[in-house]
Amino acid sequence: MPTVQTNDVETYYERRGDGPPIVFLHGAALDHAQWAFQMDALSDDYTTIAYDVRGHGRTGGSAVEAYSIDLFADDLDAFVTALDLERPVLCGLSMGGCIAQTYAARHPDRLAGLVLADTFTPAFLTWGERLQRSVLLRATIPPVRLLGYERVERAMVWLHERLRRGSSGDYGEIKRLRAEGPRMETDEFAKVIRAVARFDETRVDLPSITVPALVLYGENEPAFVRGHASRLNATLPDVTVREVPGAGHASNLDDPEFFTRAVREFLADVGRAPRTDASDG
Asked: Could you tell me the strand order of the sheet in which 47-51 lies?
């Protein structure tokens, strides 16, 4: 089981292929397995690496009382340093995208490119978004302690589907990934959710992210995520934005072929490898 010391935690990761490195960062309450399709498909031309963020999967929890996106970005820096990765491309989804943009703003010279999927920036664009990201997200913690996060998440999926059909995407695939991986401890879930809910406290200077960036978002995303895709398009110096047809908030799982093809084309455009027709999905 490959692990590496990153700050005060032993971080689990998986690595495939050979070539320029791309590091994948998963969403909250998932783990590295979220990226299995992309890792396999891109490993013909690239070194594909995915790890379990602190609190998740085989990395598991830590004694730190409170987590933050800043802490997760520090862990990512230690991870990249420990593996001696030379100018990787980062690909983060949802919470993973929050971590990736935070790291990229701090260390743009250490990256070759950035893929931000189904994610958002620290700023609240509307009062409704502030309510959803800050208040309602924190409000899930007490029922999770009582009922478990699986039941609470199913209720949230039901609600989101009533508000925007298709926003949850292929939720059955998410449930499968959860069932096959290590169970997340409730206290760790609470620390992770609070970290995401407090992302507005993190300083991310988007114009300082000078590396080429690709922003992907699902066609059926919640409105606030689509709004942040527009904000990233207007703010990042070198950015391409693409909509993943028919996808919800986990677009790499909802349409893995389209998602992977878009990432491969982006990698070729930033000069990480010649474009080929192999393994486009």
From this structure: 3-6, 9-16, 47-51, 21-25, 89-93, 113-117, 213-218, 239-244
Domain boundaries, the chain: 3-269
Three-state secondary structure call for residue 90: strand
Question: What number of residues does the chain have?
Answer: 281
Architecture of domain 3-269: 3-Layer(aba) Sandwich (3.40)
Spatial distance between the Cα atoms of 8 and 20, rounded to a whole number of angstroms = 28
CB contact at 8 A, 57 and 229: no
- Report the C-alpha gap between 70 and 85 in whole angstroms: 20
User: What are the average pLDDT values for consecutive 10-residue runs of the chain, which has 281 residues?
Assistant: 94 97 96 97 97 97 97 98 97 98 97 98 95 86 74 60 60 80 90 96 97 96 94 97 95 97 96 50 39
